[in-house]
Write a structure and sequence with these properties.
This protein has about 260 residues and is mainly α. It is about 80% helix and about 0% strand.
């Protein structure tokens, strides 16, 4: 009765091809297999005792079962290896992202420190016009010194990279040193209030520059150590994090303030 009821159930058209394909496979397996009694009967035709047929059936089935178990174990092992591999890749991705952000943050600190150095370098360069004015006011014949001061400031304003600014800073230092030598030989200039004010400005700028240069070099040292250490270098290289140069002091002499 149940078989009749199951036979009367309507099968959706979209799954009918799949049902027929699976049924055909089952039927092929059935027609291509033998029962134990059929094998025993076939063995009798060639004078093979039934017990040997039964023993052979058991051994073959055991081997097939063993092979199936081995295939299952290999499939399970492959699945575990895939999961482990996926876990390692995920961990490396997270670590790479964290390391990149850390290096980027360190690089940002270097750039911020350099900006402070630039502020002080710019401040000192901006004092050059005042030095020119003082020189022109007290020594109109010192055209060479005026030209040197103007050119050194212009070289700094045109510098774009840290290395170019460092080279331009050398010219500014030489120009300021030349001005200091001239002031030392000119008592009238040295006693003027404008010169005194400039000396205070120069001294304050040099002090602030020394502090900012120290902070910049500390940031560069921390950054360089980070990108060169293992395993950070595995991320630093491919993402273009390169070693940064230190900013060397080209003039460590702070202008002296004249006594009253």
């Amino acid at each position: 009765m149940n078989a009749m009821k199951n036979a009367d159930n309507r099968i959706p058209e979209e799954i009918a091809p799949e049902v027929l394909e699976l049924a055909s496979r089952y039927y092929a397996d059935y027609t291509q297999s033998y029962s134990a009694s059929e094998l025993v009967a076939a063995g009798k035709e060639v004078d093979i005792p039934a017990e040997f047929i039964q023993k052979a059936i058991r051994e073959v089935q055991a081997k097939r079962e063993q092979k199936q178990q081995q295939q299952k174990r290999l499939a399970h092992l492959r699945q575990q290896l895939l999961l482990i591999g996926a876990g390692i890749i995920a961990a490396l991705t997270v670590w790479s992202a964290w390391t990149y952000n850390s290096l980027q943050s360190s690089n940002a600190r270097v750039e911020a420190a350099w900006a402070q150095v630039e502020n002080q370098l710019q401040r000192r360069a901006d004092l050059i016009p005042n030095l020119v004015s003082v020189t022109q006011a007290y020594a109109k014949q010192e055209k060479e010194l005026v030209s040197l001061l103007v050119q050194s400031r212009q070289a700094y304003l045109q510098a774009a990279t840290p290395n170019e600014k460092a080279a331009a800073t050398v010219q500014i230092n030489q120009a300021i040193d030349r001005f200091q030598d001239y002031a030392a030989a000119n008592p009238q200039l040295r006693s003027s209030q404008l010169f005194t004010n400039l000396q205070y400005e120069l001294a304050g700028t040099e002090n602030r520059l020394a502090v900012e240069r120290m902070r910049y070099n500390q940031a560069v040292q921390a950054y360089n150590q980070k990108i060169q250490s293992f395993p950070n270098l595995l991320v630093a290289g491919p993402f273009g994090f390169e070693k940064k140069p230190f900013f060397q002091a080209t003039n460590t002499d702070v202008p002296k303030i004249p006594s009253e």
